[in-house]
Write a structure and sequence with these properties.
The protein is of the alpha/beta class. The protein is 37% helix and 12% strand.
Length: 231
């Protein structure tokens, strides 16, 4: 498998970075793909660039498009990011930080790149345990998309190869994900999770993503290396 190409969806967060280092550990040649889609801030893209460099990715592209034209999410619209929600509140329903069809769009670009560079493997850091209720992080969605991708591509139709979407973190808790990354030598100081950073560049510590991250580090018995306005 050494040198086999894989497209990596790289947001700069804990999950995507851990999925990327997992692919590297398995011997894949990394081709990272990040997205500037009109999100509230670009801080996560800085982290994606740093993680790609740290893992010595063979290539790293940033796709640019604007989902603000559609809106409907606290990440792309004038909707307040929820802060200070309890664990039970976070685990119920689909939050306003859900971006309509975002992962479907992201995976579509990944499939296009995979077909162009003749890669059969896509790594996606989806997780359906410690997540905020996003419907496009579930196993049934990912498997359905994988089937669709193999029906919609030349290589799939001609039978030259079959695309595989790897989701190595799907059934892990955030603590298990962090322990995995640390074991593989990942530097989590390079990653970013906050939906709404402060003006001084610190993570807010109160949005759902920050809270899930902090909970994961605590349960992993590790120290979160990034700076917070409030923990």
């Amino acid at each position: 498998m050494v040198g086999k190409k894989a497209v990596i969806l790289l947001s700069g967060g804990i999950d995507s970075a851990t999925a990327a280092v997992t692919a590297k550990q398995q011997g894949f040649e990394l081709h990272a793909l990040s997205y500037h889609y009109g999100q509230r801030h670009e801080r996560e893209l800085e982290s994606a660039k740093q993680v790609a460099a740290f893992l010595q990715a063979n290539s790293h592209q940033v796709m640019r498009f604007d989902l603000r034209a559609i809106g409907g999410s606290a990440l792309t619209d004038h909707i307040e990011v929820p802060k200070g929600r309890s664990e039970s509140e976070i685990s119920q329903g689909i939050p306003v930080t859900y971006v309509p069809a975002r992962n479907t769009i992201f995976l579509s670009f990944a499939v296009a790149l995979a077909e162009r560079i003749e890669a059969q493997d896509i790594f996606f850091g989806a997780n359906q345990l410690d997540y905020s209720g996003y419907p496009d992080c579930r196993d049934e969605y990912i498997r359905a998309f994988e089937r669709m991708a193999n029906l919609a591509t030349r290589v799939g139709v001609e039978g030259k190869s079959q695309l595989k979407i790897h989701t190595p973190l799907l059934h892990m808790t955030k603590a298990e994900i962090i322990k995995t990354g640390l074991k593989l030598g990942l530097d989590y100081a390079l990653t970013w999770s906050c939906y709404d950073p402060s003006a001084d560049g610190h993570a807010c510590g109160l949005c759902d993503s920050c809270q899930l991250r902090l909970k994961g580090f605590k349960e992993a018995g590790a120290t979160d290396p990034i700076l917070y306005t409030r923990r």
